[in-house]
Amino acid sequence: KWLLFADAQFRRVDYRFVGPDKNGFDLNQNVNYIFFNPKLGASYQHSNKSLFYFSAARSNKEPIRDDFVTSSPDSRPKPEQLTDGEAGWRYKTKRLMAGVNGYFMFYKNQLILTGQINDVGGYSRTNVPESYRTGIETEFSFTINSWLQWSANATMSQNKVTKFTEYVDDWISWL
Fold first, then answer.
1. How far apart are CA 62 and CA 103, in angstroms?
2. How confident is the model at residue 17 (pLDDT cuts 50, 70, 90)?
3. Under a CB-based contact definition with an 8 Å cutoff, are residues 73 and 29 in contact?
4. Cβ-Cβ contacts under 8 Å for 171 (sequence gap 6 or more)
């Protein structure tokens, strides 16, 4: 009745590129990341129609190429780190399927656009120290006959950046 699983991913990302320094001069640059992304979970088959499950995972993601070429070593963003947890229930018969899934996703150094122009003149994504997404997803499906099925789903979520400074260009006074 129980199914346990574990997954581990090791990632190495090496960037070698020519990009501007803070004075705008091209500079050969190397950036290397090594990430460990584990995931653990379990499911419990309550009956042949009902399944409960949960999982916890950690993942890391490097900045994208544009984050490197529009920044200098001094303004370069850090990698993102996500801690994810999910738990849910699924019910399925020949004609009916229903499910609910609850999740939380806590980010450390999530990369977002703020509107700020960095030290080499480009719009850059910036790390925010903490942010999160949490919510509930539901799904439902009913097979009416062999050629007609009614399905619905809904999600309620709350997505927050705990501290954020937005920058807006002033096109009127050019400041």
1. 23
2. confident
3. yes
4. none
Q: What is the Cα–Cα distance from 58 to 79, expressed in whole angstroms?
A: 13
Query: Which pLDDT score, from 0 to 100, does residue 174 have?
Result: 60
- Say how far residue 1 (Cα) sits from the centre of its chain: 31
The amino acid present at 10, given as its one-letter code, is F
Q: What is the pLDDT of residues 136-174, one digit of tens each?
A: 999 999 999 999 999 999 999 999 998 877 777 777 776
* Distance from C-alpha of 43 to C-alpha of 87, rounded to nearest angstrom: 9
How far is the CA of 23 from the CAs of 19, 46, 66, in angstroms? 11, 63, 18
CA separation for the pair 140, 132 (Å, rounded):
27
What is the distance in angstroms between the CA of the first residue and the CA of the last residue of the chain?
65
CA gap 81, 108 in Å, rounded:
5
The answer to whether the CB of 104 falls within 8 A of the CB of 81 is no
Distance (Å) of CA 43 to CA 82, 85, 106: 22, 14, 23
Report DSSP state, residue 146.
Answer: T
What per-residue confidence (pLDDT) applies to 29?
Answer: 81
Model confidence over 57-68: pLDDT tens digits?
A: 999 999 988 787
Short-list 163, 146, 167, 145, CA closest to 109: 163
Enter the pTM of the model. 0.79
